[in-house]
Amino acid sequence: MSLTIRGSVRARGTNPSCNGIFCRMVCLPRNIMGGFSRIMGRRSQYQPPNLQLQHSLPQQPLVVPEEWAFLASFEQQYGITHPFFYACSFMEALKMAEAEHKLMFMYLHSPEHPFTPSFCSGTLCSELVVQFLDANFVCWGAIADRGEGLQMAATLQPASFPFCAMIAPAAGNSIAVLQQMEGPVDPAELVEILQRTMEEQGSAFSSTRGREEEQMRARIKEEERTRARAKEEEKLRADHQLREEQDAAYFAALHIDQEKERLRNARAQKPVEASNQANYEKPRQMPTEKLLGKTRQVSSVREAQYKETATQGKDTPQATQILIRFRSGERREHSFSCTDKILSIYRYIDSLGLPGLENYRLISSFPRRVYGVDQMGMTLKDAGLHPRASLFLELL
C-alpha cells in the first residue's frame, strides 16, 4: 500500500502478514529493549539523509534529561500547543499504548531539516491534528540525531524528514510498523492517513488484541475457580479432621469414665461381700420355691408403694416422668418429684426385684450422660431430667 501526497511526501505502507494485520515487523535494538540509550550526543555511523548535524558544541552545554530533550527543543521553537508527547523512553511509551489499547504515534524530529519548521508549526501544532492524536494515540517523539531517536532512525531507515510512524506492540523484541510517513504533509491529509490506517490495519490489530485479552480473562477466571475449589477442599479436610479429633477425645474420656466406675464399684463390692457372707449362705439353704415366693412378695409390695406414690404426684407441676429401658427390652415408667434425687431412681429399680441387677448404672442417650455414684445426690431438676427423660440401664 502506498500513498503519494503532494509529490514530495511518501507514505510507505507494509505488507499483510499471515494473521491479517497489515504491518512491517521490525526488530528493536538491544539497547532500546534494555533502556541503555541515555547518553546525550552519542552518534552511530548512520547519518539520516538531509539531516544536518551540529558539530560545534558550546563550551558549557546545558545538560537536559534525555526524555525531556525533545520537548525542550520543540517547545522552545514552536510553543506549547502540540500533541501530548510522553517524556519517557520508547519502551515505556510502548507499554503505555499497550495498557491503554491504543496505537503509538512516533515522530522523529530533525531540527535542521528544511521541511521541519513548516511541518511542526503548520501540521503538528494545528488544532485538528492535536485533538485527533490525543484522542486516539499515545504520542512519543525524539530528536533524530541523539539517544533513542538516533537508534530508531537507524532501525527504521527513513528516506526523508519529517518522519512519522504508527506503531503497535508485537511479540518478543519486535514492533509492528503499521504505517510510516516521510516528508511534509498538511493537517487534513495527515489525519486522513491516520484515520484510514486505523480503520484498515488497526481494526485487525485490535481484534487480535481483543482475542488475547479474552483468553487472558478466561485464564484468570479459571485460576480463580481453581483457587476456590482448593479452598473448599481444604475446608472440608479441616472439618473432617476436627470431627475425628472430637470423636477420639470423646471415646477416650468415655473409656476413662468407665475404668474409674469399674474400680470404684470393685472397691465398694469387697466390704459388702465380706459382711454379707453369712446372710448369703442362710437363704441358700432355704427351698428354692419358698425363696422365690418371698422375693416376689417383697417386690410386689415395693412396686405397689412406688406406683401409689407415682399416681398421687403424676399431675402436679413438680412431677418428673422417667422412662427406664432395660437390656431385655422391657420398659418401666415412673413418676418422681423434680426435687427427688438420682438415688430415688436407683431405689425404685431395686424395688422391682428384677434378677441380675446387682451392679448397674443409668445413662441418658442424647446427649449422652452417665448418672452413676458421683451423681446420686443430684436432684432430677439439676440433672436435667425434669419434666421428662428416658434412661438406659447398663450393667457393669
UniProtKB/TrEMBL annotation:
The keyword rRNA-binding does not apply. It comes from Herrania umbratica. The keyword Glycoprotein does not apply. One of its GO terms (biological process) is ERAD pathway. It comes from the Eukaryota. GO terms for cellular component: endoplasmic reticulum. Residues 209-239 have a biased composition (Basic and acidic residues). Residues 201-239, 264-286 are annotated as: Disordered. This is Plant UBX domain-containing protein 10-like. One of its GO terms (molecular function) is ubiquitin binding. Keywords: Ubl conjugation pathway.
